Amino acid sequence: MDPLSQGLLGASLSQSVSNRPRFVVAGVLGLLSGLAPDIDVLIRSSHDPLLFLEFHRQFTHSLLFIPIGSLICAMLFHPLIAKKRGFSFKQSWLYCTLGYATHGLLDACTSYGTQLLWPLTNERFAWNSISVIDPLFTLPLLIVLAIALWKRSPAIARVAFLWALIYPTLGMLQRDRAERTGWQVANERNHSPVRLEAKPSFGNILVWKIIYEADGRFYIDAVRAGQKLTVYPGTNVEKLNEEKAFPWLHENSQQAKDIGRFSWFSDDFVALSEQSNQRIIDVRYSIVPNELNALWSISLSENAADNEHVTYLTHRSSSEKDRQRFYNMLFGRSQ
């Protein structure tokens, strides 16, 4: 989730259990601790472009790391912020713990994947109930917390935290509606999906990307889950067959290992790019939800040495036509 949402959620929970004299400082501790787990974005390597994919949303986001992460936050923020205002270390640690604890759970509500139970498992939990950026989630949270700060009111802060629970719950209901529609579409095509998922499109819980795997291919559609359910048929692509796509690739080469790492990150939703037979895409994400224009990919080289890594690429630009197609879906217009 975006940093603003993470910080606001952390502040809302810490302020919800505070009192008027401690309200502001409790909110600051919760906000900063709510942001802290994303320090893992700094774990990068100039030699290994996929390292950050393995460590982002890993140990710092684990539920088991909350006592350690929040303790580190308290050790940093207590002497800087809270001690001079009469807080005991235990009180600072409590507010830091509440703020820190919200981060991984909110991230798990998105579709990116969060290792909530690391080191017990490296499974990436993705509940697919909210987009990584959603103004309808963040703006009410911001407005209500601003009012709570003005009034120094823990009760109003609880309203903000309640909204942070209600909105992802609405997202889950919307996700289930979209998934049921996706299964109906697959049945109408006489497909028997191995798996089917609905993921929120950018910035909303109204339009959903539907991906299902059947007969070695990924089928991609969009569903607008308004009062009426509208299907926007999309495209399909063959699931990556590594041996077929790269017969020249050595099994023990670094590029082969990197394909495995990228596939793990992408939950095995990987395919060969239609633009390049040397590029592997993550089919889960695109600006227009029923299209295949991936937001990131890896590129291989047949001439690479056995110890050479793949190249990681991002593709986040969008054309005016792409944005217009997305807006048409969002507002229920014909394509």
UniProtKB/TrEMBL annotation:
Question: Transmembrane ranges?
Answer: 63-82, 125-149, 155-173
What are the protein's GO molecular function terms? hydrolase activity
Which Pfam families does this one have? Answer: YdjM
Which top-level group of life is the source organism from? Bacteria
Q: What keywords appear on the UniProt entry?
A: Hydrolase, Membrane, Transmembrane, Transmembrane helix
The name this protein carries in UniProt is Metal-dependent hydrolase
